[in-house]
């Protein structure tokens, strides 16, 4: 049986884990955050050097603490975000253990979970918040001939700065914000081509003199689910102040339709022509990093089975920080707090005994979203 003294274990000490800890404390639960890295700042220090937030500081806060320290309309840097998360973690009264990687989560026969760590600890937990992000699980598509290609192949997760690519022929694959940002900053240093499956869609950073995030908030678009949003917007779009579109129009950045295969020294384009390359950088996204949940048998080809972040297979298991977990803003600084309150409420309801069924794998639980 679970006891009220048992903590809720939060796996991951990034913005999602910290927002979960904040919500858990507010709900009267005892959170313990386990973070594999050396500080509770998530993956931000590992993002590329030049990264700045796409939302202004005023729209980039977690619950309970403003993103202060300057002009609220500035776009904070990667390091500012890490510093903000450090301050945030210090401001909440939660136990946070850094240097602690969760290796496995097992169900306990009478209910609850047993959490194992790389340090050999075993922690009995009343509930689990899986907030381990996706940066540790970059997605690389399978493409014909890739194994034969002898040049550099890298996921954008491992890209830091443009200088090592000076004078090289570089292909960036992808049509999202990271692809455009990296291709754009490489362009003055290297010969860059951007390969995308469809024409790139742009979204203006500013509309009628206000940052787009102002309008996302006042129109409620920030809270739209994926199902609703895809009915309104057919393709994902890149936020642009105009510089990316101009760079493509001016020929500084070449954009081509996705290539069909690798060769030993480059790629074959859709029109059959060959281009020799020194490096290919894939900005092709990420998948949730949840390998430690394998003993529960809850993952479906690596993906969690959930409704709005609440597991549909295990009571007392919730997720946070998934892309489109509940809305467009779920996987962002500004949106994760809303989801944290939602999933922690489900945990609290479970723990307070409103839900009496045992913590065992089930085919499907009735979950409200
Ligand atoms: C390049 C890039 C730019 C982005 N820009 C923005 C932006 O401008 N604005 C915005 O709001 N969002 C942005 N995002 C989206 C999102 O806000 C970030 O990805 C954010 O870091 C997600 O936070 P998280 O806490 O969910 O995951 P992460 O930051 O990845 O944190 C997860 C943490 O879990 C830890 N962990 C993983 N596995 C384990 C384990 N088994 N045991 C213990 N700990 C573990 C990791 O060490 C990590 O610290 C961006 C994302 C990327 C990739």
Automatic annotation (TrEMBL):
InterPro entries: Auxin_biosynth/cation_transpt, FAD/NAD-bd_sf. The keyword Oxidoreductase applies. It comes from the Bacteria. Pfam families: Pyr_redox_3. Keywords: Oxidoreductase. This is NAD(P)/FAD-dependent oxidoreductase. It comes from Micromonospora tarensis.
